[in-house]
Amino acid sequence: MGNVNTRALLAAAASLAGCTAGFRESGSQAAMRVSPRGEIDRSQAPTPRDDLLARAGDDMLVWLERDEAPFANDAIILERLALAVRIRHGRGQREIDNRRHLGVLTERNSSVEERLDAAGALGVVAARRYRIVAAPLFAVWEGRPSGPKDVIGTRFGPIHVVVVPEIFEPFRAAPGGIGIAASVHGLDRSFRSALVALRLCDRAREPMVVADDYGGLIDLLADADDDVQHGDADSLTLVAQQHPWALETVEALVTTQTVREAARELNIHHSTLQARCDTLRTGLGFDPLQGFGRTRLGTAFLMHRLSRSTVLDLPAPAAMTGVSRPAVVQEDWRG
What we know:
There is one protein chain. The chain has helices at about 5-15, 75-90, 95-105, 110-120, 185-200, 215-220, 230-240, 245-255, 260-265, 270-285, 290-305, 325-335; strands spanning about 20-25, 30-35, 55, 60-65, 130-135, 140, 150-155, 155-165, 170-175, 175-180, 210. It is an alpha+beta fold. The radius of gyration is 22 Å and the shape is globular. Helix 7 (about 230-240) packs across helix 11.
């Protein structure tokens, strides 16, 4: 954790852009260039184009290599690549320490002593509670929070991570996930819950998710193995394939208190919703309105969403038509 190197960052950018990405420090003729396949490109490096170039601090450059005009997403890819490289190559000792110590705090297997040492070095007070904020490198921020930060490698790709107090100043990251509040001994759980919250984001309706909004379910999902089959989620998928109304109906049922309230939310008659509930009961094999049935329904619904999450996919160029600045993406996600 916390050990994404420059080659991995270039490989991610190259994969997203579909062309070779490069990096060079001033005073050095040596450049690292990585192809979209993640391989080092050892051919003669072309002179970086001004419109496909970004500075990563005073003495570092990153660029993309393509012959045609810049693509719509190139500017945002370069901006996030430059940010990640700047963090990775921070010149101050404090930045180097931050990377190491944040990795310790977000790692599940760190010892108590290691967590306390890392927290002390970062200025994270053991007697207080904090949250981990997780966002992809292409996220659009408003009021970026202060606090220890890093780019951490995960199974979903490089993720920008920030430690914020339990009660934090307003900000917005689209998309972004905010983890549960925890002491320094539980910040690995906060990190995992932040990743789940991030994957539950919906660009149009819910661009930033706070784990607290989903109660203990996110805590459970944070420790669940994504590769393990979940019978209730699989059954829900089958029901959704047969009935187009299924997912919106389930969402209304798990976010309201009563069937009548859910019917009003869906703007349908109570009897219609009751008929849908009967169909759900048959398809799922349990009563979604009784006892643990509601919890099983909520868990299946969230697992279904996680398994189909596309929030970490780079926004399609169509969302940025005619403009190449990140602000356009921000407006799109506001719906």
